[in-house]
């Protein structure tokens, strides 16, 4: 079958050394993880994520333990892997505990009681993304029905859950296709992404659509009382126990013992590293929209190269998003707004680690098998 050269998901991405901008100086990069530095508040250039991580660790007097011999490599895509080594690197590069002053510990002074009613609502920028997100969520169940998935859950007249089924490979396949389409739609709402060539779009989407999927599924899961499962957008569940919900006749312990262990590790990691944080922070739809927007504006691949020539527009959107998130956090609770802002930014690292976890699992899982995915999804993952 001939594939159309116009299909944006079937075009291979080719890097071009000539399009790469000059390497940033030491003052422009975070000395902890290598991301772009935004502040030198505590003694050394650091990105906002590492600055917030350092401040939170010191203020809350947190103690971490490395499980790998205190020798973990801390880099931008993997900075959440080991908090112990990340904090140790903060100290090694020159961040100082005594640079955190009293005002840092308690956040900014209270706002005036003369705040207007307008300040109690999300900004127009955020409202537009929350609206799009709501529209996309409303399309989830019809999308699964159109693609032939059976009903995944049922509720009675009192809206009490009476039935939920185990996710199948078909559910995962449809979930991947849905996430890719909606992630692309989200990106096209942002001028820097919309202006990219097809090949570069594909390189961004190869990571971003999994982050998009993870945020939607985790948000849905965090709303449920059952804390032992991970829900897909159609309400089907993935349980850490590979055999949970399988008919006894289909179980061959010896044949899939290794897969069962990998499956347990995968689901447990998602539940512990991402779902638990969403549930603890009670992340809402507005904050989910912010996370999705930040992740596409700041992809793990160098945004300086990806969005070359659009830096001013990109920085304007990113600044607006960050300012609106801070204002929204302060609006929710002025006493803990700054701390919540930092906690939400720290979720970005957990989500990126979760994306790597999903990607790796598609190589070994029969449930998340990349060979069963839609051609568009398969070509993105195999990029």
Written description of the protein model:
By secondary structure, the protein is mainly alpha-helical. It folds into two domains: 23-106, Erythroid Transcription Factor GATA-1, subunit A (Erythroid Transcription Factor GATA-1, Chain A, 2-Layer Sandwich), CATH 3.30.50; 124-381, Retinoid X Receptor (Orthogonal Bundle), CATH 1.10.565. The chain has 14 helices and four strands. The strands form two sheets. The protein has a two-stranded antiparallel ribbon with strand order 1-2. Strand 3 and strand 4 form a beta hairpin. Helix 1 crosses helix 13. It is globular. The two termini are 20 Å apart. Mean pLDDT is 83; it is low at 1-23 and 102-120.
CATH topology-level name of the largest domain? Retinoid X Receptor
Count of β-strands: 4
Q: Please name the CATH architecture of the largest domain.
A: Orthogonal Bundle
What's the Cα radius of gyration? 22 Å
The structure class reads mainly alpha
How are the SSEs ordered, and which strands pair?
Layout: H1 48-59, H2 83-92, H3 102-106, H4 124-138, H5 140-146, E1 153-155, E2 161-164, H6 169-187, H7 191-194, H8 198-222, E3 230-231, E4 237-238, H9 257-281, H10 285-297, H11 303-306, H12 311-332, H13 337-361, H14 375-381
Antiparallel strand pairs: 1-2, 3-4
Give the tags.
two-stranded antiparallel sheet, single chain, Retinoid X Receptor, 383 residues, Znf_hrmn_rcpt, 3% strand, Erythroid Transcription Factor GATA-1, Chain A, DNA-binding, two-stranded antiparallel ribbon, mainly alpha
């Amino acid at each position: 079958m001939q594939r159309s050269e116009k299909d944006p998901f079937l075009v291979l991405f080719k890097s071009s050394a000539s399009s790469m901008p000059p390497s940033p100086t030491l003052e422009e990069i975070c000395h902890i993880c290598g991301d772009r530095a935004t502040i030198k508040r505590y003694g050394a250039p650091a990105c906002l994520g590492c600055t917030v991580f350092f401040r939170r660790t010191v203020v809350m007097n947190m103690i971490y333990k490395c499980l790998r011999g205190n020798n973990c490599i801390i880099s931008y895509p993997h900075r959440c892997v080991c908090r112990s080594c990340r904090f140790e690197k903060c100290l090694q590069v020159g961040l100082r505990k005594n640079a955190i002053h009293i005002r840092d510990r308690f956040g900014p002074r209270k706002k005036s009681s003369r705040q207007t009613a307008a300040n109690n609502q999300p900004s127009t920028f955020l409202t537009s993304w929350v609206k799009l997100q709501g529209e996309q969520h409303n399309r989830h169940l019809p999308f699964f029905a159109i693609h032939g998935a059976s009903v995944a859950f049922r509720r009675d007249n009192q809206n009490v859950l009476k039935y939920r089924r185990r996710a199948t490979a078909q559910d995962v396949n449809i979930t991947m296709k849905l996430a890719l389409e909606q992630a692309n739609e989200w990106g096209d709402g942002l001028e820097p992404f919309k202006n990219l060539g097809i090949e570069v779009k594909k390189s961004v989407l190869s990571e971003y659509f999994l982050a998009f999927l993870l945020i939607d599924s985790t948000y849905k899961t965090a709303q449920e009382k059952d804390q032992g499962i991970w829900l897909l957008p159609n309400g089907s569940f993935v349980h850490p126990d590979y055999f949970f919900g399988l008919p006894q006749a289909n179980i061959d312990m010896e044949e899939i013992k290794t897969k069962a262990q990998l499956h347990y590790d995968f689901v447990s990691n998602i539940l512990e590293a991402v779902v638990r944080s969403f549930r603890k922070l009670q992340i809402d739809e507005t904050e989910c929209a912010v996370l999705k927007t930040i992740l596409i504006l700041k992809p793990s691949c160098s945004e300086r190269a990806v969005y070359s020539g659009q830096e001013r527009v990109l920085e304007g959107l990113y600044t607006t998003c960050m300012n609106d998130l801070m204002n929204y956090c302060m609006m929710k609770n002025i006493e803990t707004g700054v701390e919540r802002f930092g906690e939400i930014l720290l979720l970005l690292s957990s989500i990126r680690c979760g994306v790597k976890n999903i990607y790796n699992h598609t190589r070994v899982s029969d449930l998340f098998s990349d060979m069963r995915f839609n051609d568009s999804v398969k070509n993105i993952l195999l990029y």
